[in-house]
TrEMBL record:
Its EC number is 2.7.7.-. It holds the Pfam family DNA_primase_S. The keyword Mitochondrion does not apply. Keywords: DNA replication, DNA-directed RNA polymerase, Metal-binding, Nucleotidyltransferase, Primosome, Transcription, Transferase, Zinc. It is an enzyme of class 2 (transferase). Belongs to the eukaryotic-type primase small subunit family. One of its GO terms (biological process) is DNA replication, synthesis of primer. This is DNA primase. One of its GO terms (cellular component) is alpha DNA polymerase:primase complex.
Amino acid sequence: MAEAFSPELLALYYDRLFPYDQMTNWLGYATITGPTELLYRREFSFTLENDQYLRYKAFRDADEFKSAMKKLQPYKIDIGAVFSVSVSPADKGKVDANKFIPEERELVFDVDLTDYDDIRTCCKEANICKRCWQFMTAAVKVLDTALREDFGFQHLLWVYSGRRGIHCWVSDYPSRMLTNEARSAVVQYLTVVEGNENTKRKVILKDPLHPSLERAYSILEPMFYDVILSESGQDILGSPDSWSKLLEMVPDEELRSNLHNKWLNNSSPPRAKWSELKASVEAIIKDKKRKINDERRRNLRTCLAEIVLAYLYPRLDANVSKQRNHLLKSPFAVHPKTGRVCVPIDARKIDDFDPMQVPTLLDLERELNAPDDKKNAQTFANYVKFFESSFIQPIQRSLIKQKKTLAEAQAAVTGDW
């Protein structure tokens, strides 16, 4: 069986398919700053075949970028910040270190399936399948909505990491200029699940729920049964060990014990167990004769939402997002373990995205060599076209509008119409 990744296939990809023009158009934000100035101050890093790590690479244009990629054949490509000096990051040793600081950077997010290993029952570590990929589907739905509605961001690029996760690049001008402190605040706002595999209550909510959490719950609750509870999902209610962890989130010891013992003595399906839990919680809340304090009653009101969010709310790698100078794998890079390309994802169609169908280098070689009437309908060109039409072009229109607004403001001050 042919390998999905090899140096020869990688060389072919860098020579004939990698979208250099589109990538430099994006990262140079050329419409407002010029095609070289901003791009030339942008850091790229390469990891080569022998694990040699090269930082502070920079390029003036797509041709320089392509020439370096073809020469070095990096196994991994990372993108960093735009630095404050007018020289290339490659010349950082020639300038005052105090003046060489990251000045601009997309706001980025990284969600990885390994952070769900305490609740995944189908796969562990680097392995993935359609069942656990639904955690990533849930993450995109929640984060995309929050970033757009709560922060007003418009230019979001979702990218498959090539193996077991997703990345998000937020490219609005205000997001690129955020300080480290502001980035940390955004991450904290979007962090709900905390603790480790030994933490019994990973989500702590207050009644009434914050509007953003109410919205997240409305997105995730309809997915909860199929993804988490059902036998075709994670089957969390299928064994005492897994349902015990779920019941630990219910703040009523008597109820936990009753349900645990009852489920041990019958083989009711997951939907029946979940309905029984919900009905029992609601009954306690409404039972005015039952002597429970106000705090316990408030905790019971939020415990069902806490359970849903503990299993399905996005689990961010916070360190990736907090620092301007943190590097992140480039879109359209290739994962050397799987051979899969890190392709853009349409968040509006995230339910249809299947990581197993993402093209590998071997797929691309076959596509290049196939006659026109035999080419796959889901060609690599479609991913590049989506990247350009849904992400780069809207950014450029926004930059043109921004440039026009600045010019009009300046003319109003100077009277030079």
